[in-house]
Predict the structure.
Amino acid sequence: MTSDNQASELENVEAVPGSPKQDPILKIDNIVRSFGGLRAVDVDHLEVQRGIITAFIGPNGAGKTTLFNLITGFDKPDSGKWTFHQLSNKESWTTNLSGLRPHQIANKGMVRTFQLTKSLAKMTVIDNMLLGAAEQKGESLRNALLPSRWQKQEKQILKRAEDLLERFKLSHMRDEYAATLSGGQRKLLEMARALMSEPKLILLDEPMAGVNPVLVESLLVHIENLRDEGVSVLFIEHDMDAIMGISDWIVVLAEGQVIAEGTPSDVSKNPAVIDAYLGSEIAEELKDV
Amino acid sequence: MGKRLRLLSGFLILVFGLLMVLPALASADTDDELTIRGTVRVGREVIPDAKVIVSNAQNIEVGSVVTGEDGKWEIPIPGLGEYTVVLAGPLPEGVSVRDGASDQITVFVEEYRSKAVGFQLIGEDQKPILEIRPTWERLLNRMVSGLKVGLLVALASIGLSLIFGVTGLVNFAHSEMVAFGAVIALLLESTVGLNGALFPLAVILAVLAGGGLGFGLERGIFGPLRRRKMTNISLMVVSIGLAFLMRYLILIYHGAEPETFESFRIQSGVSLGPIELPAKDYFIIGIAFTTLLMVGLLLQRTKLGTSMRAVSDNPALAESSGIDVNRTIMWVWILGSALASLGGTMIGLTQVVEWQMGEKILLLIFAAVTLGGLGTAFGAMVGGLAIGFASETSTFWLDNDLKFLIALAVMIVILLVRPRGILGVRERLG
Amino acid sequence: MMLMNLFAEIDVSKLFGLALRTSISVQAATFALAAVGLNLHYGYTGLLNFGVVAFMAAGAYGMAIFFTQGWLGGSILLAIASGVVFAVVIALSIGLPSLRLRADYLALTTIAIAEVLRISFRSQRLLDLTGGPFGLPSIEDRNANVSFADVITVDWNPIKEGNYGAWFLEFDEKTLWVMIIGWSLVSLASLLIWGLMRSPWGRVIKAIREDEDAARALGKNVFSYKLQSLIIGGVIASFAGIVRAFDMGFVETQQFRPQTTFFIWTVLILGGAASIWGPIIGSMTFWFVIIFSEELLRQMVDSGWIPDAILQSNDIASVRMILMGIMLATLMIWRPQGLVGKKEEAQIDIR
Ligand SMILES: Nc1ncnc2c1ncn2[C@@H]1O[C@H](COP(=O)(O)OP(=O)(O)OP(=O)(O)O)[C@@H](O)[C@H]1O
Ligand SMILES: [Mg+2]
């Protein structure tokens, strides 16, 4: 289900681990993280293409979440370097992300969600959303006590938040505490909240886990819409139907290493992938694709 | 009967054996009045007719006196505690307090023994009097007494660490178990009359009572609250409330005066090579050491110990591998509290029994446990030894009132450098 | 019959009078003020600060040392400012190294730092500066009735000498003036917190309490916000220490034992954490309950209603601490939101 011109650039990309992309938004080099004797992540080189949906798949414990943690600054790698590539008005520039702290990375335009949702339970849904917006004047102590300085911006943010809630079918919960949401709704809220900051690249850790099938459908549509609006999406998922359905590119991790990447059809034919999943249901699913 | 069990009971017998020797060490108490005394002098010359005032920690004067012909003075004090001695003078022409010294000296009277206080004075034409050189013998004695304090802090710390390990609770009320044990033993000794040859019985009963209290707290308060899914932070606040409740109940029913076990009040030192300690101290070291060995053995070699360590490591995994988690937690409370009670009676034996015992040892215990790593019993033992030893030995160089600073500084540094404790692991983020 | 007897013995007017008097006293105001500071730390930001008393001590000692040393001409306003600066320094030295710690470790660190401060103030080595165990002003000054408080309570006191009010609520001009200062500061601080917490800044602060990783993932500099919270709350608490020093006329390390921290915790939990009125209602109620029950017990003991074997009149001071302990524990279990807090915001699960 590849769409628009961005994805078409992928046709020329070789389906091998670490293959260079034509217009990468994120480049990762030699990133290693071990826990005791276990090398949870050990990736030589990886590039993520701008403007498409990239999926990370791999068996449980493959190191997907750990890799997310590393590149978003929530965990420190033993070694490694990664850079963010931005583009505006045909001008491009590179930002080094390694060594930055999580909030700095988020402010560069790379925002993540968590596998175990982190909805701010004792805040209302709308407050959760408002928090997501970046560069708020009223968030600095200097302006906090002077509403005149931030009220205008706050109104705009509020408008955007309400629109997003509408899109994610959460409007009716607007003033409820986030604690009252169901597990699936929290996933939605977390994703909507991340979108409030208008990220360039959004990293979603298992956004569909625990969400009921009806909502999954609409979630998938949201993700595709995001891509069509120009946001690059990187997401971890176990649900093979969803992955094969919407992703433009798939990166396969096993035991901390990238063992394969390619379009959905490349990957499903790749014997190394089948091997990694050997014996699991997913291996069966892959064969079916 | 397994080899381990035999070993364990061997140790148990040893501890009881040691306890049985205690009565032999009881010495008749001389009914000396507790005083602070000294001689006001500059060099060899004594200074008569100078006024000395002693006031207590609340700045209330407890007595004053004028030095005699021999420069000597002595002022009775009502009990143990902190006092400030002021040299009010007048001093002869040309005599003054040496630079860096003061005419006000704060002393801590910790034992039922007259406390000597000297002011550092110099005359016009005199060089400052050389202080008595610290000899290696004095240092050695400090270190042995540091070892004693360390062992006792270790005894008191294990429970806190184990309870944190199996439940995640930082129990602020733990140190009150120390006071509880000591007070119960004192009560049994003085009121029930378990003194002299019967004294070991008082200690044993106090330890059992401590275990019982631990059982009661887990059964009656913390177990049910845990099952109500109260968070550990909330439970920590509950334990703070409980600590105050216990501490001030002890104050009401034990009284504000520090007391000592009558049969062990004043003891002259017994020399062992260069070491000179009151006889009871050797036995306290022996009992504490043997008990710690036993606890180590219990944890390493028995089924109960293994399950304690397993629950501490990963409660869910322990549960699924057939360990009765709640029962294990219960035993941890019982064991930890009993050990704290034992520590308390031993501390009462070397120092005094008072209602503030718990408050005083609380931060030492916290320091010990953080040093060793929250949640591990062996960490608590090592940490306790280190903290007790370091703070006690430091008084050789530092003022007595600064010894707590050592412990607190160690604790702060450890928390900052290795916040997850020496043996702790980083939490996962998903 | 027995009950009638009891009522005849109890002086109801005194019972309520004393309790009411204390609930609006300077004491209550300083506890409320410190609780406002703690509320920002714990109620809103989720910082388990068990060293509130360190900030109070910093304020009081900073002010008293500066004044008694006569630095820069010994102006009282500069002295107060230096107390506040000292509190900021304490906040930075607690915060910079330890704000990254887990909640319960932060609790241990803060309680330890507060004790380090208190023991240092008490040390012989600082006798000339802090007065060691005697505190400030020196014994001689105190005997001569000279205090740093005089400028505030006498020279700058706009209220004419005399007694005001009636019944148990009669205050002399000094007490009344310090009461006015104290409660004004409480109102000011509460207003400040109210303003801050309805701003986007406050929203970030609450988010940090809920889940700091979520706040980080959204680009908020959690460490910096925590430090700001620690400093603002610390400065508010330092004013509590300063006002208290003006009320008592002296500072002493005894005033800053860890138990004072837990009194303030009880006040906050009782009133309701994460609410603007919580600290105020909490402090007034706390002192009312404490003094009421102490006085009731005292009268019952004195009239022989409670036999000596159970309680003697000199034990009654301890009852205050026991009540505090019971309140803290039971509130935490059955009413974590306190009197006026929101139930939904009350359950603490900081990690
Ligand atoms: N903090 C940690 N300490 C020790 N080991 C860890 C830690 N975090 C992750 N690991 C280990 O690293 C490996 C990779 O874990 P990770 O969570 O990244 O897997 P994953 O691919 O996200 O799996 P899943 O699909 O189940 O979410 C696992 O073996 C895990 O046990
Ligand atoms: Mg994962």
Notes: The longest strand of chain B covers residues 81-89.
